[in-house]
Amino acid sequence: MSTDKESSGAARRIAVIGIGIMGSAIARRLIECGHGVSVFNRSAKKTVPLVALGARGAVSAADAARGSEFVITCLNSAAIVEEATLGQGGAAEAMDAGSLLIDMSSIDPASTQRLAGAMRERCGADWVDAPLSGGAPKALLGQLTVMAGGTSEAVQRAREVMRDLCANYTHMGPSGAGQATKLVNQVLCALNNQAVAEAVRLAESCGVDASVLPAALAGGRADSAALREFAPQMAARRVPPSGSIVNMLKDLEGVQRVAHGARLPLPLTATVAELFRGMVAAGIGDEQMAAIIRQFDGYKALAAA
User: Fold this and answer.
1) What tens digit of pLDDT does each residue of 180-194 get?
2) pTM of the model
C-alpha cells in the first residue's frame, strides 16, 4: 500500500477524535494524503499543530463528525470511547447510516460489541474495530498493521481510509474480533519487549556491546522486530516515543480479564504484567517502552531519571 505523501484513493471527509501521540500521527498522515480532516480533542491545544496543517478544529466530537463520511476514534479506554461516540455531544449525534465509525483504540472485545450495537441502534452507523500495531512512526508512513472486526461490508468500506494508513489490514471476524487480535498482539509485544530488556542486560553484564545484538543475531531464530527496534534504544538508555508502559499494562490487564473469564492460564503474561505493574507503582508508568530496561538499574533510579 501507499507509503508516500499522496493518497492512493479519492479524498474523503474524515473526523479524528482523540489527538494523542497516535491520533495526531493518524490525522497528520490523512492530511498529507489530501483528505479533508476534522479533529477534536478534549484538550484543544493538542489540535493546534494539525489545524496549522489544514485540519478543521472542532468544538466537540459531534462537531468533528458532522459532514464526515468516516469517524476515527483513537482513545485510551472503553469508557472514553463511549463518551466520545454515544455520550452528550458525541459523534453519534451527527452520524447516520451513511457514515462509518472506525475505532482505532485498544479496548476490550465485549465493550466493542456493546458499543457497536448501541451505535447502530442510535443512528444506523456501522462500527469497525480497527486496533493498530506499529506506533506513530508507522502511522506517519502509512505502514500500520491493523486487525479489523465488523461486517464484511463495513470492513471493506473502511479500506477507503485504511489504504492510506496501513501496510497490513486484515479482517479477523465479526465485531470485537479486531480487539481480540490486538490482545494477542499485545501479549507477543510485551513478552518480547521484556525478553529484549533481559537479553540486553545479560549482554551488558558479560561485557558485550548490547547495541550490536540485532546485527549479530540477524537471520537467526532470536531475530525479531522487537530486538531490532528496542535493543539499541535500551543499550543507550534512550526512550523515544513508542507507547507507554502504563498503556501496555492496560492492555495486559485486558488480556488477563479475558483469560480469567475463560479460566485460561497465561503464566508468562501474568509475570510480565506484574513487572509492568511494579514499574507503574514506582511512578514511571508514563515512560516509553524502552524504559523497561531501567528496571535492572532499580526503580528508584528510574523514578529519579
Assistant:
1) 999 999 999 999 999
2) 0.88
